[in-house]
Write a structure and sequence with these properties.
Elements: H1 3-47, H2 69-79, H3 85-116, H4 122-132, H5 141-151, H6 158-161, H7 168-178, H8 183-191, H9 196-204, H10 209-224, H11 240-248, H12 255-276
Length: about 290
């Protein structure tokens, strides 16, 4: 066998292994995608099942007699509530937009200072943010309630908005992205007389669109699912997830209505994700401009 034939054989062997690896990765991602889509599919199927199909055993993964009665009953039930259904939707939209906008603003400002600022204790603050990612917000519920009660924010929109503005995940995500901006660019802007605020919003932030879009997706999803029954007791201030939870707690007869409302709640987060996902990069650690 000539040297050329040996090289061709080795090349074909590597190509064969490459194709096998590609097929394996494709199958793995396909199975993973099915598991991720399955909850959404089940929610849609359960929302169009008539009440008699809820008691079939073993349960079916499809609707034998699909109907939109659950959605009609959802709006009928909403009309009989103490406040209009549109009020719950408006409350959720207001809280979600306020939290998302405020979280993007505060996370961007804090991340810029932590990534490009030079001050004593910066590394300690960065370490605290990383450690705080390990803890859920549930551990500070009691302290949050005590503080908000002292400030007179209980049973108001502020009780839903303020605790969700600052998140360690948002700051960490933006800091990882902003840290990729070359220091030379920052120094050049300082030489030209730009202030730190101007550098942040006129130079750094325009290059952080992928990171901001990712943060918007995370912030919107978390804010849209805020339950208001912990700090808010007035029915006119409660959010849509709370109304859905109340409907679901009414018994098995209302489970179809609860699933219809859950599908209705899925629409805004999915729409935001579809609109923003084309600007999202795979990892923020490698985003931004590099030297």
């Amino acid at each position: 066998m000539t040297e050329k034939e040996k090289k061709l054989k080795a090349s074909s062997g590597r190509a064969g292994r490459s194709h096998v690896g590609t097929v394996g990765i494709f199958i793995f991602l396909l199975v993973l995608g099915v598991f991720m889509v399955l909850p959404i599919y089940l929610a849609v199927v359960m929302s169009i099942k008539p009440s008699q199909e809820w008691f079939i055993f073993p349960p079916k993964l499809y609707a034998m007699d699909p109907t939109l009665d659950n959605f009609r009953d959802m709006f009928r039930t909403a009309d009989k509530m103490w406040v209009p259904f549109s009020r719950y939707v408006a409350n959720s939209v207001f809280v979600t937009v306020s939290v998302t906008a405020a979280q993007c603003f505060t996370a961007s400002m804090a991340a810029f200072v932590l990534a490009k600022g030079r001050f004593r204790g910066r590394k300690l603050l960065n370490s605290i943010i990383v450690v705080s990612l390990l803890y859920q917000s549930n551990v500070i519920y009691i302290v949050q309630y005590m503080v908000m009660a002292k400030l007179g924010m209980i049973d108001s929109y502020l009780a839903l908005i303020l605790p969700n503005i600052a998140t360690p995940m948002g700051v960490f995500l933006m800091r990882q992205s902003i840290s990729q901006i070359p220091d030379a660019m920052i120094e050049a802007a300082k030489v030209d007389g730009a202030s730190m605020f101007g550098i942040c919003w006129k130079i750094v932030m325009p290059n952080q669109k992928p990171a901001l879009m990712t943060l918007i997706i995370f912030a919107f999803q978390a804010a849209w699912n805020i339950q208001s029954n912990t700090y808010v007791f007035s029915e006119s201030l409660k959010t849509l997830p709370t109304a859905v939870a109340q409907a679901a707690a009414s018994g098995i007869a209302r489970q179809g209505v609860a699933m219809a409302a859950a599908v209705f709640m899925l629409i805004p987060p999915v729409a935001v994700f579809i609109a923003a996902q084309k600007n999202v990069i795979e990892t923020m650690a490698h985003s931004g401009i590099k030297d």
